[in-house]
Write a structure and sequence with these properties.
By secondary structure, the chain is mostly helical. 80% of the residues lie in helices and 0% in strands. The chain has one domain. The chain has helices at 4-33, 36-48, 56-61, 68-93, 97-123, 132-158, 166-176, 178-185.
Length: 186
């Protein structure tokens, strides 16, 4: 089926363009209005569902021509990414700086995992071999993860000096400044 490779590539590219447009038009402006921790948490939730990659074993059973080693590499990268994302969310909900560190680790892990999966897919000649759920995951979910990772890095870099809990910062500033406290009491 010579049309499967261009069809899969076109679907992935189209999804990437659509997710980039949605991110630019809707997600980025929304993120800018959110405090730092909730903005990071929203982006991390996309990664929590990366355990969907476990379906690679069912796909392999149904004839997807990925090697056992390739399937395990995908499983480790994506399940590990899902666990990192969930742990980062839990820590950011508590406004722990460790959550930011885990978000950075996730971003780096996701970039490497994406590269490794592309490299492995090229090596094993998998482009165009996906069908069913695997095709859907590759065509829609993977581009969403890539765009979410780019947005996550953007938020981590541009808001690095921003407090995780702006309410705590303003309360500390108010308590330390009698003039500010008096002006806010009026």
């Amino acid at each position: 089926m010579p049309y499967m490779t261009p069809a899969q590539a076109a679907a992935q590219f189209a999804s990437l363009i659509v997710f980039i447009a949605a991110a630019r038009w809707y997600v980025a402006p929304w993120l800018a209005r959110q405090p730092r921790a909730p903005a990071l948490i929203a982006l991390l939730w996309v990664h929590v569902f990366r355990y969907v990659a476990l379906q690679v074993f069912a796909a392999q059973h149904e004839g997807f021509p990925i090697s056992r080693g390739g399937a395990i590499e995908i499983m480790i990268g994506d399940v590990g990414g899902a666990a990192l994302a969930f742990a980062a969310i839990a820590l950011l909900r508590r406004r722990s700086p460790l959550g930011v560190a885990l978000a950075w680790i996730l971003a780096i892990e996701t970039a490497y995992d994406t590269y490794a999966n592309i490299r492995g897919g090229v090596h094993e000649h998998l482009m165009g071999a996906a069908t069913g759920v695997t095709w859907m995951v590759l065509s829609f979910f993977v581009p969403a993860v890539v765009v979410s990772c780019a947005l996550l890095i953007w938020q981590l870099v541009t808001r690095r000096r921003e407090a995780l809990d702006p309410a705590a910062v303003s309360a500390t500033a108010t308590a330390g400044s009698p003039a500010l406290a008096a002006s806010q009491a009026r």
